[in-house]
User: What shape does this take?
Amino acid sequence: MTVRPEERARWTIQEAERLLMSLNGVLSARVVARPGGAIEEIHLLTTDEVKPKQTVRNVESALLSYFDLSVDHRKISVAQTDERRPVALDVDERPVQLLPVPEPGPAQRRLLFVNHRMETERASQVRHRVDIEWDGDLFTGEGVAADVPRAKMEAVSAATLQAVEFAAQSRMEDERRSITLALDGVKLVEAFDRSYVLVAVHAICGRHITSLSGATEVNGSPDRAAIMAALQATDRWVRGQF
Assistant: This one.
């Protein structure tokens, strides 16, 4: 039976990119489409967990299954980095259960970046403050680091994670339950003639540890890209806890 265009599953670029980000090994996804919905290009940044040819097949299958979209494999480009997805750390050497990231409820609003401020503490030391908003409430996290590029990205990422922790704790009905977001690493990588910031996070809730990652293209300040990558890594997981 022929399916008329109006009967096909509707989709958006954001939904397609979100789907591709859920595939094994994919750190970043960018979809370029023409008006009317025809996909022109798909660019992926992946770890070396999955070979590029398999990633291309995964993309074709996922888009066809979820959105009834058939994409020529020649339109899909894959760049790999040796940065692996973070693995679970068991700090007290007891068994740890890795959980899938829960799906957030449809009515829950995203965590939003509001502001980034810097204050000089002493010679070569800078305090970073990151403000985020969640459902109309403002939360602030802080991080201190030397005034050098790598340390600054780590400090703003840590400040962002602290602000997200505060936001999550404000929603906890059980005071005995807590959420901890531990920064596992920050890295600046080059791919597709662009620069990206990758942020890896361990999300800890009770006895469970979930490995999260986010990637954002650098358009201006690497510090801002690190903030957005940290939010990308944690937003869906945090909203899925409530």
Q: What stands out?
A: DSSP finds four helices and nine strands in the chain.
